[in-house]
Amino acid sequence: MTLTLDSIPEIDLTAEDFQGGVRAAEAAYAPHRDGVGYLRSQRGLEPVSYAESARVMRDPKFNASVASRLGGVGITNGVVYETFVNALQNREGRAHTVARKAANPWFNATNAGTLRTHVRSWVNEWLDEQLDADVVDFHNAVGRRLPATLFCQMAGVTLDRWTDVAQWSEDILLMAQAAKLEYREIVERSATEAKQFIDDLLAERRQNPDEDLFSFMVQAQERGEVNEDDVMAVVWLALFGSTDTTNAQLNLHLLTLAKHPDVWRQMKQDPALIPNAVLELSRVNPNVWAVMRSPKEPLELDGISLQPQDILWPNVFAANRDPKVFADPSRVDITRENSHQLLNFATGTHSCLGRMITLMEQEEVLKALVDRWDGCEIVTSRFSGSMYAARAEELTVRFVKDPA
Question: Of 113, 216, 245, 296, which shows the fewest CB atoms inside 10 Å?
């Protein structure tokens, strides 16, 4: 297939269809999926089918476009810039392979199982505190608290630091939104504070190692497997990549479940369906709507000339509802058997390092919810970040208990 820019339909992301939920946005993209497979928008070129989105994500000729993302908020140099460029998901080639290989053994099934024990205990405790509440502030009681608390556990610091971790992550991930120069001060302030926290903790672990992720990476450095930049690349990603994103997805799960009480009943009747339910709920209502990719050097994509400053936006939400891959894609089916990888966690070399851990967190929350209640009703909800990455700002819920 050879394309020209003139042959690619153009859409307006400020249109009403793209300001609401996934269903309306996908419906606007769907007519173009079987055409050239791309759209043009204000932000760049947008693959809209599963095949094209996965292809761009997997293509080693593209990177995560961090320079463009930082430049969009006015960060073009300095310590914060260098820290982001060094982060694991923004590295390429040997620099990425070496750091990821060193970190992989820590993100294994055994550690995920150990962390699951902690997660289960915390979630049960926090939800028990809400049993008599008429309305539950789920966003703050569980959504923000859980992934940030788990990072503290992974880092070996006191769990009460979770509020700092959550705030840093939320501020830093403003970069995943539509670029605004007013974000620069917020991102730089929180990134500077977070980096100082990490620097201090790494210095402590070099003196007093333990069994946490930081100690694990420091010990790898002492064995000569990685250098100091490699260590920072892994722990920096673990901080801002593990908290705000999981929070948003947990909130979105409740939003979906409130509209599909039959799914809640299925999980309650058969808890073995919960791991698959997490994947299906993530498919139909993903927190990441699109990712960024830019060419590492000038190249042609299906005949279109692209430069390193150009940005492509592989669409997660559109790929997740591609009928060529997911039968009856608008239906929420937690018994669905999928042979294709969800693009929520990206794919290829830069697929999500902590995928197993975030899925575990979501499974434990859903299990604890269906153990206690028979459904939920949304009282208030507020999300921002349409067409980029959903950012949970408020979610209050009335949980339903059917009469015995």
Answer: 113
Residues 317 and 132: their CA atoms lie apart, in Å, by 37
Q: What is the mean pLDDT of the chain?
A: 92
Q: Is 146 helix (H, G, I), strand (E, B) or coil?
A: helix
User: What is the extent of the structural domain holding 212?
Assistant: 5-400
Contacts of 234 (CB under 8 A, 6+ apart): 88, 99, 100, 102, 103, 213, 217, 353
* Mean pLDDT to the nearest integer, 176-183: 90
Cα dihedral: 96, 99, 102, 105 (round 10): -60
Output the pLDDT for position 319.
92
Rounded CA separation 260/253 (Å) = 10
DSSP type of residue 127 = H
CA-only gyration radius of the chain, Å = 21
> pTM of the predicted model, to two decimals?
0.95
pLDDT confidence of residue 347 = 86
State both tokens at 283.
Answer: 């498919």
Sign of CA dihedral 352, 355, 361, 367: positive
Residue type, 404: A
Report the percent of the chain where pLDDT is more than 70.
99
In the numeric block, which tokens belong to residue 395? 């979610």
pLDDT, mean of residues 114-122: 96
Run of H or E residues at 23: helix 22-29
Rounded to whole angstroms, the Cα distance separating 315 from 318 reads 5
User: In this predicted model, what pLDDT tens digit does every residue of 181-192 receive, in sequence order?
Assistant: 999 999 999 999
Instruction: Tell me the helix, strand and coil percentages in the chain, rounded to 5.
Output: 55, 10, 30
pLDDT at 22: 84
Residue 288 in contact with residue 295, Cβ under 8 Å?
no
62 within 8 A of 291, measured Cβ to Cβ: no
The count of domains in the chain is: 1
> Residue 140: exposed, middle, or buried by beta-carbon count in 10 A (0-12, 13-18, 19+)?
middle
Any idea what the CATH number is for the domain that residue 230 is in? 1.10.630.10
The dihedral formed by the CA atoms of 351, 354, 357 and 360, expressed in degrees to the nearest 10? -20
| Coil vs helix vs strand at 393 | strand
User: DSSP 3-state assignment of 259?
Assistant: helix
